[in-house]
Amino acid sequence: MKKQSWIIVASVIVALAIVVIVIMSQFTDPNDDVAESPADEGKQEQSEEKKENETEAQKDKNPGHLSVQHMDYPGDVAPYFSAEELTAPPSKNWITNGGNIYNGRYSPLDKINTTNVSDLKADWVTSLGSGYEFKYSGQATPIVYDGVMFTITGANDVSAIDAKTGEIIWEFSPELADGLDTLCCGWVSRGVAIGEGKVYVALLDARLLALDQKTGEVVWETVVDEWEKGYTITSAPLYYDGKVYTGIAGGEYGIRGYVAAYDAEMGRQIWRTYTIPGPGEEGHDTWPQDNKSWLKGGGPVWQTPAIDPELGNIYFAVGNTSPDLDGSNREGDNLFTDSVLALDADTGEYKWHFQEVHHDIWDMDPANPVVLFDVKMDGETKKGIAQAGKTGWVYILDRTNGEPLIGIDEKEVPQLEKQKTSPTQPFPKGDNFVPQGVTKEDIEKDFPEEFDGKYGDIFTPFWDEPLTLRPSPQGGANWPPSAYNPETEYFYVLGNNNYFSFAHYADDEENTFEEGKEWLGSVWQPVENTPQRGTVTAIDIKTNKIAWQKEWDTIAYSGILSTKGNLIFVGHNDGRIIAYNATNGDKVWEFKTDAGANAPPITYEIDGKQYISIFSAGASLAGTKHGDKIYTFSLDGEYGSVEDIPDEEIIQSPLAQKRKEHEKHEDQDSNETQKEGDAVLDQGRTIYEDNCLSCHGDQGAGGHNGPSIKNSDMVTDREALIEQIKKGGGGMPGFEGTLSEDQIDTLAEYILQRLATKE
User: Where exactly are the transmembrane stretches of this chain (predicted)?
Assistant: First the structure.
């Protein structure tokens, strides 16, 4: 071929290549190195130059992590766990958040059982020295591997503990982002993950870290997203097959939720799948096509997923729509919010979904972790998945395809055009584990005499006239994990039974979207002077009917452990850890700790001895007493009550004093700044965010537990407001002794000046 011909051919090839590059650039974000939806299968390698730049940027942004090792690491490090190890029921170890990657929270250990559980006593107690302030919640499930426990506080401080003695091996304190304020529901972490010699930690400011399992030193750090836009992480990450999975919280901030998988060795993102599908993806047609409400449609993931290695699927429940309570601008079912979602665990590709609430306007999103189980039904072994909803039903599905294992009927529900309500909703066959409506008898029994508002049944819509309903946004079932026992074939779930009032006021700030600001769309609040109740329920997995139920005079806010010893263990708001007979619900043991027992218990075995452990540290949304201790029990334990434990026997965090000094120094700096700048209201906002925001909301009109401050009579009476802050009441804890007199005065001034509605 002549030279000129070669030149022409080469020119054509180059031109075609340029065209291909230009076309591909329309579909690929130049800043991404991964496929970001099930439709994208290509995975690009991140350049070393970009990686170095990202690493330097991360160092500059958060240089202040602290890792301190107090003793030599006594055990083996976690391996690259096999699928068999991760699906085995937990006995000697408790290696994932849910016990195994089925999330069943069932252990075959039975040395502690119904015949001897009454002999259970405290064996060791360790004070973690972190998370005392009211904004923090202690909700973590500890991990145990080869005699070492790993746990995390609401302040994101991580500890490695000798699981036999309670001695602290190392501690890690992260440097969280300054000004972090996009947390709708308090400062909380529900646990860590382990694998390949690392401890994986998801931080509240949307970063994912790997710590050296022996030392607590940072191995790698990845920015998952921007907390300033409302993206945070509260769930425990999950390790499986060389990957670390995490979901994103922030549905109250107009985010677009997702689950992402990261390489466990290096921290690089492998895939990301959005829970709100974009144009051309499955489910996008359930959002309006004439606006972009899907881009800020919510869909957070509040819990740790489950995985079936045989099917190759990862399963999780997707949370609320955004805005939570206003459906007027997002007509349609709004997939995949309020859904159980199955993806390919290796690629993130969509497999199937089941939506529990269509077009949610009540914040009835499923926050409870999904549980995988195998059970014989009609002579055939079924692969099941169960999810306990805020609606008060358990949704029992076939995990191979998402079809109901027990019938679920679509039924017509009340309609309201302004809210663009769905004409039908799913109604599972079987029993609801909490009441699903408000009756005249309820009003007479539970409400103050002056109540004269509207009320209704589940799925009744609302607009500008307050409407009282139940279940409330607290559930039904909320985040506290459920458990499944293959011996009893019962599914154990905690439920909440309280009354909430909803209303929509078109001119309220809550209806205006602003990136990084809480965006509920309407107003909600608990009905004052009505009871708060909880339930512990055993549900037959084959029929979805209640086998037994216990009622509490407070919300149930911890989580459940089930064992082959025919026991279930659960924490109570008053500080008790309680054991029930798993078959009939009889209470067989209890021990009262020094703070709200608002985390799930676990069990493990060392040298043939079975232990039960629980993190007892309180929770802001439960309004419980705060603390910082891990309590561990055994049949050989010495202490029958907290009063029996000598102070010198409680193991103390070596870093506790340093943390207190750091906080005191920050408070002094803050006070000096306030005096110099005379910015009392700014100081008041800080106090409000630390102590009040999770219950009363960013603008004082719609948190997750407290009434609207804007509509309260107290905002016209300073003395009454200060008395309420000090003494509490109506489900609110008192802050006298927690806050100083000056802080209470400053907080009251901030509420009166910035949050009170002026007539």
Answer: 7-27
